[in-house]
Amino acid sequence: MAHYQQQLQERGLQQSMSRKGNRLDNASMESFFGILNSECFHGKGFKSVDELEQTVKESRLN
């Protein structure tokens, strides 16, 4: 975990940590990624990050 935290710090990002037992802190992002996964990615494989990024961009147009 230290490597992940170091990379965040190097990029000027702050890690989001919810309080123990508070499942609602991340509810909106969990919902967003759940919908994104079910509508765009379910059952698909991507050979690169570029291919994944292109799929996300194309799904915004539909």
From TrEMBL:
Residues 30-58 form the Integrase catalytic domain. Residues 1-21 are annotated as: Disordered. Pfam families: rve_2 (PF13333). Transmembrane segments: none annotated. Residues 1-15 have a biased composition (Low complexity). Coiled coil: none annotated. This is IS3 family transposase. It comes from Proteus genomosp. 6.
